[in-house]
Amino acid sequence: xxxxxxxxxxxxxxxxxxxxxxxxxxxxxxxxxxxxxxxxxxxxxxxxxxxxxxxxxxxxxxxxxxxxxxxxxxxxxxxxxxxx
Length: 84
Hints:
Low-confidence stretches: none
Strand content: under 5%
């Protein structure tokens, strides 16, 4: 099951990125998913699902956006390692 959303955007939005409306929609899904993952609102798998890509492709998108694929902070990782 899926739901269709409709957005009203100015025609200039597509020319700004030099993409078609369909490509713009795909890019918007990925960008939103990356941001929600970065904010800790989504797991990698759920973000990939919303983005409409595989998990591996989502990890590649994280890299393109300069976002770490890890949701733990350095301090959290160090704390976990110190408990070993």
